[in-house]
Specification:
The protein is mostly helical. The chain is 77% helix and 0% strand. Helix 1 runs antiparallel to helix 2.
Length: 57
């Protein structure tokens, strides 16, 4: 996910977070749900780091 050459914008991360949440609502398999949950945590952390970086620049 960390793409230093072309980093995600906050808007793209918001869209990815929203899409992941929607997928979590429809998934039936616990393992798939857990994987999506981990992905959601990663996306939220990436967004948090981006916001911090943008606020320091």
């Amino acid at each position: 996910m960390d793409n230093e050459k072309f980093p995600y914008t906050e808007a793209v991360l918001d869209m990815m977070i929203r899409t992941t949440k929607e997928a979590m609502e429809t998934v039936e398999d616990k393992a798939d749900y857990d994987q999506l949950h981990d992905r959601l945590k990663e996306l939220r952390e990436h967004k948090r780091q981006l916001i911090i970086l943008n606020n320091t620049l």
